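Working notes for the structural subgroup meeting. M.R. asked for a predicted model of this chain before we commit to crystallization trials. I am recording the input and output together here so anyone reviewing the notebook later can reproduce the run.

Input as submitted:
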Amino acid sequence: MMTIVRLTCGLFLLCTVAAGSGAVAAERAAGIEYEFVARPAGVPPEYDAPVGVTLRFLTIKAIDDSRVEAALWQPGNRPVNATPLVVTVHGSGGSFHGNPNGFLSAGLAAKGYGMLGINTRQSGTRVNTDNFLDVRRDLEAAVYTARALGYRTLVLHGHSLGNIQVQFYAANNWEKDIKAVILTGMFGNLPWKSRHLLVQDEQNWKALLETAMQALRSARDDQVMPVQMSWIGGEKVPVTGRHFLTYRAESSSAADGTYWIRRVPYPILMVRDEGDAVVQAFEPYMLLSAATTSGSLVPAIKYVMVPNKVRGPAEHTFVNNREPLVNAVAGWLAERGLR
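Returned structure, recorded in C-alpha cell form:
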C-alpha cells in the first residue's frame, strides 16, 4: 500500500472558531504531496541504476494540483543528509529519462550525487502548451519534496528550455540550501530567438501575436491556436496562446535569460556541446555577459564548451559527448566543494 506524504509549505488560512472567544485554528489552504510509485510504463529499460545506486520513482502533486512525475537516484553508500542532490529539469517536450537528463543522472549518481529528475507540465505531448510562469510550481514541488526526504544541499540543473525555468526559479527563490545552478544547452534571449531565428517570418509572427492576444481576452489562452509557429528546424508546431505570450512574445515573455541570469545569487556552470545546431555559439556569451555585468548577483560563473567535430540538432543533447558532460559537471561541483 502506497503512502501519500503531504507537505504544507507556506499557505495557511486562519479562522476564528467562536466569535469573541479569541480562539483561532489554522487550516491548510494548499500543500504539496508526494508518493513513491512503481516504475512508469514509458520509462525505457536502459534508464537503470548503476551498481551501488538506488533508483525510485515518485509522483508529486504541486501546490496548484498539477502532477509531476519524478525519478530519485540515491548512492547507497551515503546518508541522505550528507548527499548533494541535483534537481534536473528537461527541455522542450522532454522527460527525466531523455537526453541529456537521463544519462547525466546515471553518471552523477555513480559519482556519489543524488539526482531528482522531474517531468514538468510541458513534458511530452504538452510541449508548447504551458504557461512559463506556472512551471516554477513544478520546481517548487520537487525542491520541497527533496527537503522532506532529508536532503540538505541542493543544486538546480536545467537543460535547453529547462535552463530558463531554472534561472527564473533561482532568481526568485533565495534559499540557503540551494548551493549552485547548472545550465546545459542554454539559449540567451528566447523571445528574441523565437522571432528572429526560429520563426523568421514577420507575417506569421504578427498572426501568432494577434491570435494569442484574442485568445487571452476571450479566456481561451489554454487552447491550441489555429495559427502554428515555426520551431526547431523550421518545423511548424501547434502552440497555445498562453505559451506564446509567456515564452515567445517580446512584449510579454518572461523567458529572457539575459534578464534573469544576473539576478541569480548562486554560482553558475554553463555547458554547451560545440556541435549544437539548436543553440548558436553566440548565445551562451549573451548570458555570460549579463552574468558578469556590474551589479550582477552571480558570485561566480564558468562556461565550458565540450569539443565536437559533428554538428547537428542531436548534438544539442550531448549524445556523442556523454562522458565529457558528466565529467564537466562533476568536476565543477567538486571544485565548489559539493561532493
